[in-house]
Amino acid sequence: MDNAEQTHKPPGEAARRLGHLAVSAEGFVFDPTTGESYQVSRTGLAVLNALREGADDDAIVERLTGTFEVSPEDARRDVAEFRVSLQSLGLLHAPS
Amino acid sequence: MSERVIGVSGINAVDNPGPGVGVARSLKEDHDLEARIIGLAYDAMEPGVYLDWVVDRSFLMPYPSGGVEAVVERLLYIRERCGLNAVIPNLDSELPIYIDAAERLAGEGIRTFLPDMGQVRLRGKDRLPTVAEKIGLALPETRAVNTAEGLLEAVKEIGLPVMVKGCFYRAYRCHSVPEALARYQEVIAEWGPPAIVQEALTGEELNTVGVGDGDGGTLGLVGMKKMTVTALGKIWTGVTVHNAAMQAAAAAFVRAFRWRGPFELECLIAGNALYLIEINPRFPAWSYFATGVGLNLPSRLVRRLFDLPLPPVPEYAAGRLFIRYTYERVADLATFQQLVTQGEV
């Protein structure tokens, strides 16, 4: 096992980081592990908060369609895209 | 507590700032210490000389290249003039001198809190693979080379771009073989062999400042991410972080090598891996950041040095900002004149 593998983060690490994010009501997000900060849209904020609460995609889609003027298809696509963004930042475990 | 007179070097708070002013400012902010700061300057234009709310008196020092005797003699003179209970050297080039003189200075009542030379050599870039392995960090693919042929071979194996580094200082990102060769010759001429050829990684720089207690524990650790840097690569803005892997590596470093004194651990986070870039055996220029978020490391060092009460290590918050800024000081020419002509002010 080389050093890079030794420091590879387990799936639980992504969940821990997601839970530790500082998220403001205005959609400003700070990751205390990396020092990175982000601005998310209102929709993104709703998805992020739902993911942090442990909601599954169906529940998130239902929440989005109930809050915003968006079709279930578009909402599902938004959630999928948001998941990919979080995975690329190491904030969600990428499916193997 | 009675007044303590503490010499602080590196008060050159310029565009490539020394750590001294931040260290002195931190000591001043622990009012119980009653610290009287003696600025140890190498040039009459070092800004710390003129910051009289931080530095009480200043003395010109002989350069470390002049040898240990001249430095000790000057410190003893300062002790005679205004008392001197401790010195915190803040420049890499001073460390061998102060470490060499530590016992003698202690015998004269001037205390230091430093690693030994064996520990300092760990920071040699050719020793980093050993350190990285011991503290559980990855290391960019690295070769130590002693010849131009060795450099070419290393560049071929690692692939461009590469970092070409001197064994102690200087690091250049090189995008072509001629550039790498030119930088190799430059660092070899300046610092001697070996030069280090390293994979050039892209990522975010995370650093930790800490003080080892010499028994395997720390007097505190603060982690931060550089948000913006100057053209010289020096931090301009930063943010505190809680990076468990980096904190664990810093604690492991102190524990494994029983580090005594201040240090800075420089890391790079790229993808899911945390890489070791460098270890500096002194306070970094940004160490006031730690003081500003509640962990006054220079004060804790002095308290440890004098067996003074050491409060529990306070928690610090992630997400606190560090903003360096420029400031103008207007001073009388008499201060400059006196330092130039008499060597002290």
Unreliable parts of chain B: none
Q: In what order do the strands lie side by side in the largest sheet of chain A?
A: 1-2-3
Indicate the low-confidence ranges of chain A by residue numbers.
1-9
Name the beta content range of chain A.
Answer: 5-15%
Q: What does the oligomeric state look like here?
A: heterodimer
Q: Helix-strand pattern of chain A, N to C?
A: HHEEEHHH
Report on the architecture of this protein:
The complex is a heterodimer of chains A (96) and B (345). In chain A, strand 2 (28-30) and strand 3 form a beta hairpin. Chain A has helices spanning 3-6, 11-20, 42-52, 57-67, 72-88, and strands at residues 22-23, 28-30, 37-39. Chain A contains 5 helices and 3 strands; from the N terminus they run H-H-E-E-E-H-H-H. Chain A is globular, with a radius of gyration of 14 Å. Chain A has a 3-stranded antiparallel β-sheet, with no helix packed on it. Helix content of chain B is 33%, strand content 26%. In chain B, the strands form 3 sheets. A 6-stranded antiparallel β-sheet of chain B has the order 13-12-9-10-11-14, with helices on both faces. In chain B, strands 3-2-1-4 form a 4-stranded parallel β-sheet, covered by helices on one side. Classes of the chains: A mainly alpha (96), B alpha+beta (345).
Task: Chart the SSEs and their pairings.
The complex is a heterodimer of chains A (96) and B (345).
Chain A lengths: L2 H4 L4 H10 L1 E2 L4 E3 L6 E3 L2 H11 L4 H11 L4 H17 L8
Antiparallel strand pairs in A: 1-2, 2-3
Helix pairs in contact in A: 3-4, 4-5
Chain B lengths: L3 E6 L10 H10 L5 E7 L15 E4 L7 H15 L3 E3 L6 H13 L9 H5 L6 H8 L6 E4 L2 H11 L3 E4 L5 E4 L2 H15 L3 E5 L4 E10 L4 E12 L5 E7 L2 H14 L2 E11 L2 E8 L7 H5 L4 H9 L15 E3 L9 H10 L3
Parallel strand pairs in B: 1-2, 1-4, 2-3
Antiparallel strand pairs in B: 5-8, 6-7, 6-8, 9-10, 9-12, 10-11, 11-14, 12-13
In short:
Chain A has about 100 residues and is mostly helical. Chain A has helices spanning about 5, 10-20, 40-50, 55-65, 70-90, and strands at about 20-25, 30, 35-40. Chain A is built from five helices and three strands.
